[in-house]
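Check this:
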Amino acid sequence: MNTYQKTAHEFHEQFMHHWESNECFQKKCITSLDLCDETLQKLKVLVLEKGFDNLQDEVRFFKEVKPKILSMKFAIRALMEYDLEKNIQQDKDLAELQLIYLNKMQDKFDSFRDFRYYLCGSLTNRDEHYFTMAGMKNDFMLRLIPEVEPGFSTGYDVLLSYSQAVVFMKEYFEQDIPTKKEVIFPELQWTGNKTDLVELLASLHRTSVFNNGRNDFKRFALSFSQMVNFDMKDVYRTVSAIKDRKNEKKSFMNRMINALNEMINDAHK
């Protein structure tokens, strides 16, 4: 199993080197796709020749190793299509176009509802069913997925890759903002940390107090960040970190509630 993990680790380092380079978008995509294909082919040869030592190794490969590489292939391929359509239809609303591509990828994952268990990260009791090749032999639906390869896929490793591709695409779309004249208000400067600001914006967005809730969270966060002159990148990653946080007593919203209560108490003294 160490061979598979080492190959995946080397892939990640090379992929990020290419993706974060200053090369043009099209060249980065082609180089990255070639790297995905080469690595997947290398892993396929290894799997067909050596197999796995035990079920745990097989589960780990199809749940953790292969999807990280395959998801990059799906994401880059979708982003290339998006970039082409964006340049052809320059009058199309960018946020709407991005949502179309995200939904297309997410729908592939959502169509297999029994696999929703994966969203509950603590559940592993069905891993041997979903992430071993033995589990798909009699599954008719999985055979409809074009990326499923006999001897090198459980079917659900492909579904998981769709979901992980969505995350990568969202992070890319956060940076792909149409060029507009920025309106900066120097008198308003956010001096708190990024997590507190995202927590505040997420709460405002969920309570629908702007535009009756009819706004995209990413663009809502961008507009607000311009107003307070604060750089907002990787918003969704920060949202995920907030969801995973264990100590809610130290959350920004709790501190705001305490501050409001102190103000109210001071007024009655």
About this structure: Residues 2-175 form one domain.
